[in-house]
Write the structure tokens for this entry.
Amino acid sequence: MTVGRFAPSPSGRMHLGNLFTALLAWLSVRSQNGKMLLRIEDLDPDRSKREYIDALKDDLQWLGLTYDEEMPLQSTRTARYAEAFSQLPAYPCYCSRNELHVASAPHASDGNLIYAGTCRNLTEDERSAKTRAPAWRVRVPDAEIAFTDGVFGEQRENLAKDCGDFIVRRSDGVYAYQLAVVCDDADGGVTEVVRGCDLLSSTPRQIWLYQTLGLPVPRFYHVPLLVAPDGKRLSKREKSLDMAHLRERFRPEELTGMLAFLAKLVETPAPVRATELIGGFSWSRVGREPIVVDPQDFSEKH
Ligand code: GLU
């Protein structure tokens, strides 16, 4: 059976981009008679807020994007992440942010830094001489990870060359998103992961973690990003496109129609219920190009 998930972070109110991803994830699961899970990604204690958890559940319900089960909060899963962490070839990294910037090269596809391996081979004596609390990185192999994304097609990345040893536990003790999401999706029996294509470049790291931990790898569908007319990402900062504002102006069917139109699932942005889109849903309709959204179109009814 297909098992999919919504995985919103409760660091703000849901916005148009989250809704776009949520609608596609939901349609994919429902069109296969699968099971939909909700996972609140409250991994980062500084950024997560209870009020946003309540609001995002209410927003999903308002749109009719139902889920069958709620997964445990990430903030309750530290012991599980620690157990997975103990199985990884991890080592402590004492580099400061500045040191990383000086020594690392930018990642070709997402601009993140490729770690130079500075702390990879420190001796025990060198480690004990350090005073700063370390982050923990995994020693990645010089090997290519290949997968086929359901939207973006063939992908390959050499972890050592294109990514470098990456962080699985932060210096404040919080386990990294890359590790948490792999444990969570595997333990939830998730078979398909639908998310924004800003996470496409994280996927080779996650696949390597699945393989290293002996966990089954799900299918991946990365959906195009919504961008403003100037090409910049429509971020959470575009307040007029968060759910608090959208719900003041639109009925659920109106918003769903506009989202389905952006996804090229329908010919016109006419009001439609999410359930009415299930029958005609196909991933082949969803393109790869960034989708330009004029915030004006969402600022008033037409
Ligand atoms: N929590 C992430 C977000 O809100 C999604 C992570 C994922 O789907 O793997 O963007």
